[in-house]
Specification:
16 helices, 509 residues, 6-stranded antiparallel sheet, Beta-Lactamase, alpha+beta, 4 domains
Length: 509
């Protein structure tokens, strides 16, 4: 190996080390220019990058060539660099001024005299990144040895440019993500798959501690449902509760998200402490009021029953008879509402549980219809139910109340005389699907989910509703979820409404 070849090899090795150490795009581009001239012993060098959107070559502003150079744009085939970019082949031009593709404009602006050019495409896996040029070989013309060395250098530069581009993209993405995180009012934590914190915003650190480094450690001493390990594995909604030294409840959702080199977890959550405290106060208040109303209501209903039993309709004063009946009827209605309120507030308590056993659906439906017999008769309605012999895994009392609420709702919201409520059930080995359908006015799309919110009612002028507290469907959903099932509503304006409840059933032995 000649001394010249050894020197070239040494320069290429040094260049490879330098290029691989640069990740900042601006610094890398300047290094490429410096090394390009040294590798082939040229006076200077130039670098044009490919704009992938316009498919044009341009001088990057980081090279400091001035505004005029930054404005230059070469299309494929235009000029020497454009030809190299189009053909993806290198060019050796030892008399640039005689080449018709060469333009003297740059020399005229800069005062530099271009004599010879060695231009090589920068390729990465066959994809063009740009063109690098060595200008004015010292001590003679460019030769084939210069070309081989310059092509090897261009290959190194391509890898380095792509690495710098990826690094810049990741850095920019991280900055954007950090900006979004910092502006969020909710706590946000990005972790790797094992729960180690990659990024966390200020809101998260205020809730879980400034030294937030690992989600399992952050939730230590808190009751997390579902457990942290399950959140890291599966994701989903969660709550984390700390009782001491003061109550703290955070609630949110964990989702899987891609990270460079793997998969991460994004936890987004907020402080629900005050909301939960207010909910508990509301439940306590409603429960207290409901129970306080039970005694006077029992007195009103009981004594009005006694009054009515002692009044002869033929002899009693019409006004007195009407008053006694009205007191009794309204007392019964308020009593039913209070009973519903008590059942619902009991269901909302944290320790609410279902006493589950094998319950025959046919018997539960029969019990619900018996309780509603007077209302069905008063409405001259018909309940169409086909016996199924299904056995469910249920709290019998809760199941009966669910059926009563669904059938009563259908009767209440269907203004048609002699209306028909259709109750159907189907199943597989594990689940039963119970549906209750009416032929009423239906619900607008915007109300088909909100009706499951407690105390929510549709306007009377739309549905013709007479009484209620908006607790029927919320109760149905709560009970279904307590049993591991769900409740959904489908409705079409002018065609009626169907509420479907999914319920677990015992597998046959």
């Amino acid at each position: 190996m000649s001394t010249k070849e050894a020197r070239r090899l040494e320069l290429l090795l040094e260049g490879g080390r330098l290029l691989s150490s640069k990740l900042e795009p601006a610094e890398l581009l300047r290094t490429v220019i410096q090394l390009a001239a040294r590798v082939v012993d040229a006076e200077t060098a130039s670098l044009l990058l490919l704009d992938s959107e316009t498919n044009e070559l341009y001088f990057d502003v980081a090279l400091g060539l001035g505004e005029e150079a930054a404005k230059v744009r070469l299309k494929p085939g235009q000029g020497i660099a454009g030809t190299v970019a189009r053909e993806l082949k290198p060019e050796i031009i030892n008399d640039a001024r005689r080449d018709p593709r060469w333009s003297p404009a740059m020399d005229e602006r800069s005062g530099f005299v271009t004599r010879s050019i060695l231009a090589v495409p920068i390729l990465l896996k066959g994809r063009l990144l740009g063109v690098v040029e060595a200008i004015n070989k010292r001590g003679g013309p460019f030769d084939r040895g210069d070309l081989s060395a310059f092509e090897a250098f261009a290959s190194q530069a391509g890898v380095a440019l792509e690495n710098a581009r990826l690094f810049a993209g990741l850095r920019d993405e991280k900055l954007r993500l950090a900006a979004v995180f910092s502006q969020m009012h909710d706590g946000a934590v990005l972790t790797d798959a094992g729960g180690r914190v990659v990024l966390a915003n200020e809101s998260a650190r205020k809730l879980l501690g400034s030294g937030l480094a690992d989600m399992a450690e952050a939730f230590k001493g808190m009751i997390v449902a579902p457990p942290t390990a399950e959140l890291l594995s599966e994701g989903g909604d969660f709550t984390a509760t700390r009782r001491e030294p003061t109550l703290l409840v955070v609630a949110g959702r964990a989702t899987k998200t891609p990270l460079p080199g793997g998969e991460g977890r994004l936890f987004v959550f907020r402080d629900e402490t005050e909301v939960r405290r207010q909910e508990a106060l509301k439940r306590s208040f409603l429960s207290l009021i409901s129970h306080k109303l039970k005694t006077p209501l029992s007195v009103v209903i009981g004594f009005s029953d006694i009054l009515l039993s002692g009044m002869d309709p033929e002899k009693a004063a019409p006004a007195a008879l009407k008053a006694a009946r009205s007191i009794n009827e309204q007392g019964v209605k308020v009593g039913e509402l209070v009973d519903k309120l008590i059942r619902y507030t009991t269901l909302e308590t944290p320790d609410a549980a279902a006493r589950r056993s094998e319950v025959k659906l046919d018997e539960a439906v029969a019990e619900a219809l018996k309780a509603l017999a007077e209302k069905i008769r008063a409405k001259r309605a018909k309940v169409d139910y086909r016996p199924t012999e299904l056995t469910l895994d249920a709290d019998r009392g809760m199941l009966v109340e669910v059926l009563k609420n669904l059938i009563e709702n259908s009767l209440k919201f269907d203004p048609n005389p002699d209306c028909v409520v259709v109750v159907r059930a189907a199943s597989d080995d594990d689940w039963a699907v119970i549906s209750v359908t009416d032929s009423g006015p239906g619900l607008p799309p915007e109300h088909q989910e909100t009706v499951f919110s407690r105390f929510h009612q549709i306007e009377k002028d739309f549905t013709g509703q007479q009484e209620g507290m908006g607790l029927g469907l919320p109760f149905v959903r709560k009970v279904a979820e307590l049993h591991g099932g769900k409740a959904v509503l489908h409705s079409t304006l002018g065609q009626g409404t169907t509420v479907t409840v999914t319920w677990p059933r015992k597998k046959s032995e």
